[in-house]
Amino acid sequence: MIPRAKKNLHECMYHLEKMIGATHLEDLEISFAAFVNSARSATFILQKEYKIENNFLNWYGDPDKYKDGRWTGKGLEPQTTKIYQMTHDELCKFFVGLRNQITKEGINGFICSTQITSFNSSKDLIDQPVGSSLQIGPNGMYYLIGVGTPQEDRIPARSHGVITTKVSISNTPSIHLENLIPDDKKDIINLSKMYYGYVKSIIEEWTGILNQP
Question: How far apart are CA 95 and CA 75, in angstroms?
Fold first, then answer.
């Protein structure tokens, strides 16, 4: 038997690969938001599909006895469940917080700096919209279009130049599953890979339990 949440793993990997291949900050932001939401949905779908099964509740924990990541059940909180592990893990709490933030406020935690190694505004720009102006800042290059109209917007500017935007995110976790996260692994790509691996391990562990003879 294959849990429905396995499809969410495919979705997570799709968005993660888009993040890795992003060529503009906005590409990264959009793919990251999609990754965070699909990764969080994977555990929700797993819960919904199996929460009526006692062996699942004993292994995963009862989501109805938690609210906003806090134990609300009677007695002591079981410490051997996956929910306990997730609600006490820095990496998991980091991504749950991001998902809530993205849902309510959009992505606003990125810290960016852009370095231009080679760029000629007269020949390197690709498909610049007519009447647009070019903006260059820490977040990279954008076209400002439709100024003063309902269509006013800021869209990514593509170019043939050599332009690098470095991206970090604030309040990154330091520990995952009781292991220290090295400073050089705290970038958004490596943290996302780590979180994907964790979500994948949960779904695959349950799949193994489910398919035991």
Answer: 28
**Residues of the chain with confidence (pLDDT) below 70:** none
Residue range 9-29, pLDDT digits in tens: 999 999 999 999 998 999 999
- DSSP one-letter string for the chain: ---THHHHHHHHHHHHHHHHT-SSHHHHHHHHHHHHHHHHHHHHHHHHHHTT-HHHHHHH--GGGEETTEE-SSSSPPSSSHHHHHHT-HHHHHHHHHHHHHHHH-S--EEEEEEEEE--TTTSEESPPTT-EEEEETTEEEEEESTTSTT-EEEEPEESSEEEEEEEESS--SEETTEEPPGGG-SHHHHHHHHHHHHHHHHHHHHHHHT--
pLDDT at 36: 94
Task: Write down the pLDDT at residue 107.
Answer: 75
pTM for the structure as a whole: 0.90
